[in-house]
Design a protein that fits this description.
alpha+beta, 10 helices
Length: 261
């Protein structure tokens, strides 16, 4: 199934119904005008056409219902047609999308296709519909809104630095902590969101978006006198995928803060 083809067929029926309803309204207006003047004969002359257009509307409404009921959305999701069309529209818009099977990422969103329940989950929330073009429109609009939101790199880096210091202290296990070491960004996230309700309000996708904006910042100052530096690691299972300002994917694994006396 191609949803755009299906939608075009539906639109043709719906447009015919719209025109019929418009005709019905014009006829009713004429009938009302005749009744207002007391010209019952003029009003009665419009009734045959009014009855006919009502029948036409009824047939078109039935056709609309038949078209809607003909769509097997579960099969649409299970077949992979939905996912293929979603990927195609993302590529047309030059929107980065990665994934396979029923799990995809359109940074900073994670998409989960659920054929059994005929749903698409975006960051674990049910999407309003299953039209690929409309979903891509929504993701692009919401992503642009997030990226244009005010962001203070130095302030955010200072907040990361505070969580980093706790991670270093805990990692020392009672020994003298060594500052300036690389710490996994996933570890820092745990200290930023120590409780479940915090992680719900500030999920990993939001964290990745803030890291992407920090990564794109012109300055590496943390706001507390130190500087920060992202670093690589052999443990790529802890990598956080972002998309940089140029639209290229990057994998951030660690960060270190250094330069404090």
């Amino acid at each position: 199934m191609n949803y755009e083809d299906f939608f075009k067929e539906y639109t043709e029926i719906a447009e015919r119904l719209r025109e019929q309803i418009a005709t019905q309204q014009r006829l009713l207006k004429r009938i009302n005008k005749g009744m207002e003047k007391g010209d019952l004969k003029a009003a009665a002359r419009e009734l045959p056409a009014a009855r006919a257009i009502v029948a036409d509307c009824d047939r078109s409404t039935a056709a609309v219902a038949e078209k809607i009921e003909s769509a097997d959305m579960r099969a649409y999701l299970e077949s992979g047609d939905f996912a293929r069309q979603l990927v195609e529209f993302c590529k047309e818009r030059q929107i980065d999308i990665k994934g396979e099977d029923n799990t995809y990422e359109v940074f900073p969103y994670r998409l989960k296709i659920d054929p059994q329940n005929e749903e698409l989950l975006i960051n674990k929330r049910k999407a309003a519909g299953l039209r690929p073009r409309a979903i891509v429109d929504l993701l692009e609009k919401e992503r642009d809104k997030l990226l244009s939101a005010p962001f203070n790199p130095a302030k955010y880096a200072a907040e990361l630095a505070a969580a980093y210091d706790i991670a270093v202290l805990v990692g020392a296990k009672g020994k003298k902590p060594v500052h300036g070491v690389d710490v996994y960004l996933t570890t820092i996230y745990k200290f930023l969101t120590p409780m479940g309700r915090f992680r719900k309000e500030y999920d990993m996708q939001s964290y990745a978006l803030d890291l992407a904006r920090l990564y794109a910042a012109d300055s590496d100052e943390s706001g507390d006198g130190r500087r920060f530096q992202f670093g690589p690691s052999r443990n790529n299972s802890k990598a956080i995928r972002i998309v940089d300002a140029a639209g290229n994917e990057q994998f951030l694994v660690t960060i270190r803060f250094f330069g404090e006396e």
